[in-house]
Amino acid sequence: MSTIDADSCKVDVMDTIESNNYNIYFQNSLSELASFVEKGGYSRFFILTDENTAKYCLPLLRERLGDPDNFDIIEVNAGEESKDIDFCIGVWKMLIDFGADRQSLLINLGGGVISDLGGFAASTFKRGIDFVHVPTTLLSQVDASVGGKTGIDINSIKNIIGTFTQPKAVFIEGEFLKTLPSRQILSGTAEMLKHGLICDAEYWNQLKQSDLTTPADWMVYRSVAIKNAVVLEDPNEKNIRKSLNFGHTIGHAVETYSLINDKDSLSHGEAIAIGMICEAYLSHKKSSLSAEELTEITQVLMNLYPRYNLKTADNTTLIDYMLKDKKNQNGKINCTLLSKIGQFNIDNICTEEELIEGLNYYANL
Ligand SMILES: NC(=O)c1ccc[n+]([C@@H]2O[C@H](COP(=O)([O-])OP(=O)(O)OC[C@H]3O[C@@H](n4cnc5c(N)ncnc54)[C@H](O)[C@@H]3O)[C@@H](O)[C@H]2O)c1
Ligand SMILES: O=C(O)C(=O)C[C@@H](O)[C@H](O)[C@H](O)COP(=O)(O)O
Ligand SMILES: [Zn+2]
């Protein structure tokens, strides 16, 4: 059941994309940010960074904004550990200490951790101040900065607290990806492949034949266009936005498990790639995905992402994490599946036995 017109997402010119009352800029995006800052009528500016984006991305931002002195910087640790209530309290306290008022603007300069944390902190501070995203990872450019989901984790349960609050603008600058480690590039690629799998078989075919270590600009644009089309139709995930959650029921459980148990935990994209393989298996079992397409999806993802030893993970614990998923209905675990490559099928209740079968499919590859 796919209702997105994938053809409308094919474009030659990377024009500004209009979302829910805000723009997503691709061309001269940092100049657009400078003009937004100048004309927005804001009283104060705050830039949220992590330790890496402070080092690699903040200098360029400062330069393009004319090295302003009326900006305060709030820096958190790099990584998922910062998407947590203690760091959120830290951000709120800094805003209070710096004297932020309701006319302040928060500029989230970083990956998905920064846009989720910053978006959440801003959407709740003084009942909501404006924020914009300047995404600096591939994953945040193609996915996290678009669509207005903000949030934090509790005990590594993903995004369990959050809001739907749209940013005032998103500024996508390819230059930032030059310092991004290759592992993080591949993490973002997982969400791009997801966009193809759920809505756009042609895009999936193009991606699977491309060198995904350096995704082209048009691919970033195509992914944003697909995500934006879904979100515009269903901003609060009552219906087809659940398509964007393909791979996430099992993927989030595996991510949580890894965050708790592994020293070098899985990235979001790596976990979602595992989730997509398991959920592709369930799609074959429950939702008409052919055996050939299941094999194709499995091979493409297994070739791109390192194998994770799921055998050591406790299935009961993983099911327990899945029972906390936000899509669930009446205590039943609800997955988004594929009916074929390029077509999704939402609201599939899966039994614990089926989910374990999906996990075992991956574990036994
Ligand atoms: N809100 C949404 O719609 C949405 C969508 C997808 C994912 N997410 C969330 O996003 C998070 C993952 O985001 P992510 O993959 O961007 O992770 P991230 O924000 O942790 O960034 C990954 C790493 O790259 C570093 N980094 C960022 N930009 C850099 C740059 N330009 N150069 C060098 N290093 C840089 C960061 O410091 C970090 O170490 C997860 O928490 C996930 O749940 C949210
Ligand atoms: O924007 C969405 O909607 C998505 O589901 C995109 C996902 O890639 C993203 O990881 C999102 O944060 C998951 O949301 P959640 O509601 O499952 O926590
Ligand atoms: Zn995701």
TrEMBL record:
Keywords: Amino-acid biosynthesis, Aromatic amino acid biosynthesis, Cobalt, Cytoplasm, Lyase, Metal-binding, NAD, Nucleotide-binding, Zinc. Its EC number is 4.2.3.4. Its cofactor is NAD(+); Co(2+). InterPro entries: Dehydroquinate_synthase, DHQ_synth_AroB, DHQ_synth_fam, DHQS/DOIS_N, DHQS_C. Pathway: Metabolic intermediate biosynthesis; chorismate biosynthesis; chorismate from D-erythrose 4-phosphate and phosphoenolpyruvate: step 2/7. Residues 188-328 form the 3-dehydroquinate synthase C-terminal domain. This is 3-dehydroquinate synthase.
